[in-house]
Amino acid sequence: MAAEAERPLRADAQRNRDKILAAAVRVFTEQGLEAHFERIAKEAGVGTGTLYRNFPTREALIEAAYRNEVARLCDAVPTLLETMPPDRALHAWTRRFIDYATAKMGMADAMRAVLVAGTNPYADSRRLIQDALTSLMEACTAANAIRSDITSTDMFAALAGIALTSAGPEQRAQAERLLDLTLDGLRARRE
Question: Where is the HTH tetR-type domain (predicted)?
Fold first, then answer.
């Protein structure tokens, strides 16, 4: 049974799983714990049986959706750094961070249910996100695009603050302005 769980999914099964996770984030963000599996399945374009085969409990689905959002955020870093200059990659990633934070806040009630059930989906998320941000900032520092006296821990705190105060959909414009202000303050001083 353990070998079966470790076997990679077929391409179509992986696509279905990805669609379910994306739909779950949207629906849990909108409806919290009131979200119905049937709506998530419908939005994902799969049957409820497919959803239940992948995620037999509400907590399993919520946890997987959250972990998937963290992975998407962190996994974007190498592609961003390969396709754009480091400062532009950092700019693009900070927007993704606000998207992630907005989804996380929208799923807060659902996430509390997972914690009550005894699992901690947050266990590794801070470290993973911090590592991703460190990679971006090191690339920016090496390119002399940002100041070297600001740590990724400092930047993470700034991003978290922006997310807490303005990550809701209605405050997106404010979040964008605050991100631009923060990134402007990070730029390397030219003398």
Answer: 14-73
Q: 116 with 185, same domain?
A: yes
Residues 48 and 68 in one domain: no
- Global pTM reads 0.85
CATH code of residue 47: 1.10.10.60
Segment 57-90, tens digit of pLDDT: 888 898 899 999 999 999 999 999 999 999 999 9
Which positions ≥6 away from 79 have C-beta within 8 Å?
none
* Residues 160/105, Cβ–Cβ less than 8 Å: no
User: With a cut of 50, which residues of the chain have pLDDT below it?
Assistant: 1-4
Number of structural domains found in the chain: 2
Nearest to 160 by CA among 142, 140, 182: 182
Q: Are 44 and 65 in contact, with CB atoms under 8 Å apart? A: no
What count of residues does the chain have? 191
46 token code pair: 């799969």
**Residue 5 counted as domain residue:** no
